[in-house]
Amino acid sequence: MSGLGRAVSGIRANRGMTQAEVAEKARYGTGGAVAISRVENGRQRPTPEKFAGIADALGLTLEELEAKAVAESTEGDDLGGGEVPPPAKELRQRALQLQDEIDRRTEAIESHVEAFDAEHKRAQEEFFMRFVKVADRIDGAEPPVAVEPNSRVSEAAGQIAENRIGLASTGIATLLSGSVGGAAAAGGGLAYGAFVTAASMGTAPTGALLWGAPLAAGGAGMSGGIAVLAGVVAFPMTVLAAGGVLLMSKRNRRQRGEFDAKLCHAEQELAASEKGFESFLEALRRGTETLHYIATHAGHALVRWSDQRSETRCTWAEMGVDDHSQYQAFVEVAGAQISVATVDYRQLLTSSGAELDELKEVVGELLERAADRVGAHV
Fold first, then answer.
1. How do residues 313-331 score in pLDDT, each as one tens digit?
2. Which residues contact 278 (CB under 8 A, 6 or more apart)?
3. Nearest residue to 267 (alpha-carbon basis) of 9, 16, 2, 37
4. Alpha carbons within 13 A on the beta-carbon side of 255
């Protein structure tokens, strides 16, 4: 540890501040806590601008911090601006910690995506395609009131969510009114994809509103779920693979310094993506709960309604008001299902800052309103 590092560490501790708090006040930006850690450990000398920021964060002038650093200096300290790479033992420990975090995230993402896939498949089979078969026996069905497509990012998140669900319901009803039910039911997963496409028409793919293919049936499946790891995991794993030999044998200062820089970058990347990672898991969990509710409760409600009806064809005019209401309710449940299934959850993993906040708000509103819509009709 250098004199500067000891000075910063001691003053920070006396003031009861964390490295993250110092980094924020010093305007380090994303991954700043890691940079402050490197300064304290003597592995990095801050630039004049950052030095001034640290001094300000600690409530000192430039001269005061420099004087304290000199007072803490001992023979052999490197205060000349170069980096002192950590020993191999420390690199090994940090690499193992990084791998543990990667493994934790990988396992969490895989398990959440697997659960989402399973409930989405159930919702498709137990409710959606069964409803398509029933709807195919009804001629001239009237869809719910259509909504005008309007998905500008500048709009309130709640209105965006309502527009999205309304568009999905309208698209599904339009496709059903074209007497495609029988052919669609026979087509299975491919037909479900056609409904996904119809329900997605009119949604502008701008800003935070990038809607994708479902993670499960009709979409990318588990392979698509694992693919979202690329931005969060792939680079750190590459670092570890490249440094494995380095950590197993003694290397020179330059090589240790290079690997230290790679590890620091990977640590910063993981720290910066933590909020998006947690947001992804939470959104996927909520989506899974709604799909489970649809598969279980909407599926049962559909069976009860279908059992009360004749299996012969009929016209909309021949049906009663209650049957009209139930049909349209199922259309809206189907619209909620497609809306939940086609959110591009992957974006949450790769977004940050204001973009992530905006995306979280819109996705959160959509998931909440979709769940409310389903609960009101089932």
1. 899 999 999 999 999 999 9
2. none
3. 37
4. 12
How far apart are the C-alpha atoms of 203 and 209, rounded to whole Å?
Answer: 8
Element spanning 261, H or E: helix 253-293
> Taking the domains of the chain in order of start, what are their residue ranges?
3-72, 90-232+256-377
Lowest model confidence (mean pLDDT) among 2-11, 21-30, 89-98, 139-148: 139-148
pLDDT digits (tens, 9 = 90+) for 279-298: 999 999 999 999 999 999 99
Instruction: Look up residue 227 and give its two tokens.
Output: 């693919």
CATH dotted code for 3-72: 1.10.260.40
- Residue 264 to residue 44: CA distance in whole angstroms: 11
Greatest C-alpha distance within the chain: 96
Q: Which amino acid is at 342?
A: T
What is the token pair recorded at 108? 């969490």
| Structure letter (DSSP) for residue 295 | I
Q: Which two tokens stand for residue 114?
A: 């697997």
The pair of structure tokens assigned to 210 is 């990038």
For the full predicted model, state whether its pTM sits above 0.85.
no
